[in-house]
Design brief:
With 221 residues, this protein is an alpha+beta fold. The protein has two domains: 129 residues, Immunoglobulins (Immunoglobulin-like, Sandwich), CATH 2.60.40.10; 56 residues. The strands form two sheets. The protein has a six-stranded mixed beta sheet with strand order 1-9-8-3-4-5, with no helix packed on it. The radius of gyration is 34 Å and the shape is elongated.
Length: 221
């Protein structure tokens, strides 16, 4: 049963570490959107020291494919969001950190994506960290190269990830089967040993009783 205990301990430690230290994970944004559907532009910047209070503002810029200049399209501050370009009026919604000025997730969501949305997006996250005697300012720049297609395609990474998922599931099932067989054999062996000890104890008790009876007969004679 030792491997089972080690596995449970590892899982519990992993979950505990995730809850304590894994509240923020910097995941790259997807880069392929389907025309006519919505798409999330990811922009995540985790603080290295979560205990330090801070605040941040966010600005998004867009450079259409074939163009050389970026245009300001979106701003998110303490007083709320502002769409800065007519091309994106009523087409951007905030999908980042909520109920906090200490923004780590600055993602936005594009509604009704068109082929004109193909291009490069830049997310600037202007963060202030408040230490006891001073403020520290850092500017984070994230870039997303978006390609808009008529129909979703599956990339190699997606296929490999799915294959690895199924391999992991099958491997886990095989491991569980091996553990069940191992545990069954251990239980069966323990049961056989218990039966053997009980049989030996019963044999010794009968032999002792027979010996006592023989001794009583001899004394009577």
């Amino acid at each position: 049963m030792a491997p089972v205990r080690l596995l449970l301990l590892s899982v519990l430690c992993t979950l505990f570490a995730y809850r304590c230290d894994g509240a923020c994970a910097e995941v790259d944004s997807d880069t392929e959107a389907v025309a006519g559907k919505g798409f999330k532009l990811g922009c995540i910047s985790c603080k290295r020291r979560s205990e330090v209070p801070g605040s941040a503002t966010v600005e998004w810029y867009f450079r259409p494919k074939g163009e050389s200049d970026f245009v300001h399209i979106y701003t998110y501050k303490e007083d709320g969001p502002t769409i800065e370009h007519d091309l994106f009026t009523d087409r951007i919604s905030w999908k980042g950190s909520k109920r906090s000025h200490d923004i780590q997730d600055a993602s936005i969501y594009l509604l009704n994506v068109t082929f004109n949305d193909t291009g490069t997006y830049r997310c600037f996250l202007n963060r202030f960290l408040f230490y006891e005697n001073y403020e520290y300012n850092i500017l984070v720049d994230k870039v997303v190269h978006l390609n808009v297609v008529a129909k979703a395609t599956r990339g190699t990474a997606s296929i490999v990830s799915e294959v690895m998922m199924y391999v992991s599931i099958i491997g886990l099932q095989v491991w569980l089967l091996i553990e069940m067989i191992y545990c069954y054999r251990k239980i069966a062996a323990a049961g056989e040993e218990a039966l053997r000890e009980a049989a030996n104890a019963e044999y010794l008790a009968i032999a002792s009783e027979s010996k006592d009876n023989c001794a009583g007969v001899q004394v009577g004679e």
